[in-house]
């Protein structure tokens, strides 16, 4: 059977709609009214009020009992940051769709697991002997007993060798220090088969991947740490759309599906002479890191396009600086590894909007804005990209000639300060040269620069604050020396 991506998505929604779930729109990737959240990173974000018991009973959210959707997610900062994996592996993206289903105080574990199993094995007709299920094995320290209910339900579908217990990290979900929480059960798929893959589950192995997380919200974590059973129990599930699609298309990588192939074709049109089309090579077999660059560029245009369509843009602070870093990373990989032509990145918008605009009309509605913003941002980095890279190469070569292994913090700072290279991009380039970056040294330089900016502001008095607002806020807010977000986002919740 053929499973083009569009049919995979539709079949998921149809399945849950036929089981009385209301199809609910994705929330924007840029959260509207949740300052604790950098980007939408899971389908449950917009349903938080329901889990907290804060949705008015006669509001649309408060009346909802069953829902399903595809949620636009970005995981490039905060609690979930997959940016470093993107390009290097086959199944983490910065932007992805999470197919979700919910029960709000309606059905619970039995029905949720049964539905998931039916969808995967009867609708998608995936082979039953490729699946593993994980359940919460209990944690004495957290005062939480094993979820034997989920285990026993799974034993109706799977042999016991493929029903595996894990600890809090993978199988217990909490919204924060206190609040709604509960065990989860996850479904993993062996892309190869005819083997015992149980040791590969939750082991970062691309051939045996997690596809679906079913969270059972049944407790409230009280301020004294104890768990109080909730009066209304909820189900919150999320499945990676691109992962599911790769499995249904019998591919070993998310990137080998029709979600990404049109983008690779478009990228190939912009690359330099002699650069081959995308061929899926990974790690050390990816000589020159050409395929890594294809993956990075294709992933990043998705993230930038959706973030701009939903109202954000690259800039100097917080969320906007995350977008700037992602854009510069893409432009660097495209220009340096693929020898892509100037302006190649914004030129990808057309194809991307063609591929996704049907499902997400906000892309079509904002096509011109997306293109204009990316184009301008791309051009501004172009100005310093080549000189900055030369500067970097000189410094890196010098370190290597002297038998060193670490690029100095001062060099990294000059790249940031003069050429606009985000520190995580400098780290990526350094790794390519077999070098580390002296982060401590970089942070010292940053702190000095910040101190200088503060002093200058203090001396100059009120008036010039306005004049200097740009430069100063850049210094105060940008590139705080870690790949994480600026401090105000550090306490983000799920
Ligand atoms: P992983 O362990 O693979 O990083 P996760 O446990 O962080 O995944 P969840 O928070 O449980 O992921 O999210 C639910 C589902 O969303 C996952 O089972 C997976 O299929 C998908 N998913 C999570 N992160 C990504 C990502 N960066 N890119 C694509 N799909 C993802
Ligand atoms: Mg993860
Ligand atoms: Mg996981
Ligand atoms: Mg998970």
What does this structure look like?
The protein has about 500 residues and is an alpha+beta fold. The chain folds into two domains: about 5-250, BirA Bifunctional Protein, domain 2 (2-Layer Sandwich); about 260-490, no CATH class. The chain is about 45% helix and about 15% strand. It has 19 helices and 13 strands. The protein has helices at about 5-15, 50, 60-65, 110-125, 150-155, 170, 240-250, 260-270, 290-310, 320-335, 345, 350-355, 360-365, 365-400, 410-420, 425-430, 440-460, 460-465, 470-475, and strands spanning about 20-25, 65-75, 75, 80, 95-105, 130-135, 165, 170-175, 180-190, 210-220, 225-240, 405, 435. Strands 1, 2, 5, 6, 7, 8, 9, 10 and 11 form a nine-stranded mixed beta sheet that branches. Strands 3-4 form a two-stranded antiparallel sheet. β6 (about 130-135), α5 (about 150-155) and β7 form a beta-alpha-beta unit. α9 runs antiparallel to α14 (about 365-400), α10 (about 320-335) crosses α14 (about 365-400) and α14 runs antiparallel to α15. The protein starts with a helix and ends in a 17-residue tail after the last helix. Residues about 465-494 have low confidence and may be disordered.
Q: At the first level of CATH, what is the class of the largest domain?
A: Alpha Beta
Rough outline: globular
The strand count comes to 13
Given as residue ranges, the uncertain stretches (5+ residues, pLDDT < 50) are: 463-494
Structural class: alpha+beta
Helix segment count?
A: 19
Helix content: 40-55%
User: What ions, cofactors and ligands are bound?
Assistant: adenosine-5'-triphosphate, magnesium ion
- Gross CATH architecture of the largest domain: 2-Layer Sandwich
CATH fold naming of the largest domain: BirA Bifunctional Protein, domain 2
Mean pLDDT: 91
How many domains, in number, for the residues?
2
Q: Strand count, sense and closure of the main sheet?
A: 9 strands, mixed
Radius of gyration: 24 Å
Task: Please report which band the strand proportion falls in: under 5%, 5-15%, 15-25%, 25-35%, 35-45% or over 45%.
Answer: 15-25%
Name of the CATH homologous superfamily of the largest domain: Bira Bifunctional Protein, Domain 2
Distance between the termini: 37 Å
């Amino acid at each position: 059977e053929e499973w083009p991506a569009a049919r995979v998505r539709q079949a998921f929604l149809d399945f849950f709609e036929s089981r009385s779930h209301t199809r609910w729109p994705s929330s924007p990737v840029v959260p509207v009214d949740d300052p604790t959240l950098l980007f939408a990173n899971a389908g449950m974000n917009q349903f938080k009020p329901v889990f907290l018991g804060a949705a008015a009973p006669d509001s649309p959210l408060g009346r909802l009992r069953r829902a399903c959707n595809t949620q636009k997610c970005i995981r490039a900062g905060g609690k979930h940051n997959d940016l470093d994996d993107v390009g290097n592996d086959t199944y983490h993206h910065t932007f992805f769709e999470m197919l979700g289903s919910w029960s709000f105080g309606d059905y619970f574990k039995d029905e949720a697991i049964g539905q998931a199993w039916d969808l995967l094995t009867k609708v998608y007709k995936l082979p039953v002997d490729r699946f593993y299920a994980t359940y919460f094995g209990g944690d004495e320290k957290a005062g939480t007993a094993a979820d034997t209910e989920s285990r026993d339900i799974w034993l109706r579908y799977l042999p016991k060798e493929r029903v595996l217990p894990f600890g809090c990290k993978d199988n217990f979900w909490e919204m924060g220090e206190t609040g709604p929480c509960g065990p989860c059960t996850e479904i993993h798929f062996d892309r190869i088969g005819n083997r015992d893959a149980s040791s590969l589950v939750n082991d970062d192995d691309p051939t045996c991947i997690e596809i679906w997380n079913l969270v059972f919200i049944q407790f409230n974590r009280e301020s004294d740490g104890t768990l109080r059973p909730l009066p209304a129990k909820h189900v919150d599930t999320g499945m990676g759309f691109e992962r599911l699609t790769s499995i249904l298309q019998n591919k070993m990588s998310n990137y080998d599906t029709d979600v990404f192939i049109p983008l690779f074709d478009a990228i190939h049109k912009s690359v330099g002479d002699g650069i081959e089309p995308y061929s899926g090579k990974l790690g050390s077999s990816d000589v020159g890191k050409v395929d890594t660059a294809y993956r990075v560029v294709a992933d990043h245009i998705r993230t930038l396009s959706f973030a701009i369509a939903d109202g954000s843009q690259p800039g100097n602070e917080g969320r906007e600086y995350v977008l700037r870093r992602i854009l510069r990373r893409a432009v660097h990989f495209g220009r340096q590894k693929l020898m892509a032509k100037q302006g190649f990145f914004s030129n990808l918008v057309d194809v991307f909007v063609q591929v996704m605009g049907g499902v997400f009309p906000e892309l079509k509605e904002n096509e011109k804005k997306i293109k204009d913003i990316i184009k301008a941002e791309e051009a501004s980095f172009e100005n310093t990209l080549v000189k900055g890279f030369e500067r970097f190469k000189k410094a890196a070569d010098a370190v290597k000639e002297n038998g060193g292994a670490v690029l100095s913090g001062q060099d990294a700072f000059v790249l940031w300060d003069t050429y606009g290279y985000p520190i995580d991009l400098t780290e990526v380039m350094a790794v390519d040269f077999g070098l580390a970056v002296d982060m401590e040294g970089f942070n010292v330089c940053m702190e000095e620069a910040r101190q200088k900016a503060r002093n200058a502001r203090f001396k100059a008095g009120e008036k010039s604050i306005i004049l200097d607002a740009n430069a100063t806020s850049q210094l105060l807010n940008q590139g705080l020396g870690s790949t994480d977000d600026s401090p105000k986002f550090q306490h983000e919740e799920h």
